[in-house]
Design brief:
1 helix; 4 strands; alpha+beta
């Protein structure tokens, strides 16, 4: 509610903006907002904030904000029904990746073995001191 012929009010969503215009020195304006709650508020702490702004410099900007926090209790849990009989659930099979690449050749293990023996022989040959003639 605005004082008679003093300012204008706009409401956007859950925000209320009141523009009271200019005040004379010592003039007091009281703004009362009455709201009807249409939905259950969120449980926990709900805070309402009021902010005063001016286009002229303010000697004490620290007193331009006021807030009130209201604790809203959590709704009581509804009565629980008897647990339902569990039904078996089919477990899906994991997807199978297609085979890619060439199949191993029959000589692959033998070839790797020969390469390994050759590398060992070369390393032993290089470690053994040789006499120069």
């Amino acid at each position: 509610m605005l004082p008679h012929q003093k300012g204008d009010l706009t409401v956007t969503g859950n925000a209320v903006r009141v523009n009271i215009g200019s005040l004379e020195p010592g003039e007091v304006v009281t703004i009362t907002i009455v709201a009807r709650v249409r939905e259950a508020p969120a449980a926990g702490q709900n805070t309402n904030v009021a902010i005063v702004m001016s286009i002229t410099p303010d000697g004490n900007p620290d007193n331009n904000t006021s807030s009130v926090t209201v604790d809203v209790p959590r709704p009581s849990a509804p009565a629980t029904a008897a647990p339902a009989t569990p039904q078996p659930t089919a477990v899906p099979r994991p997807p199978v990746l297609p085979e890619t690449g060439a199949p191993p050749s029959p000589g692959s293990p033998l070839g790797l073995l020969l390469i390994g023996v050759a590398l060992i022989a070369v390393s032993l040959f290089l470690r053994t001191p040789h006499k120069r003639v």
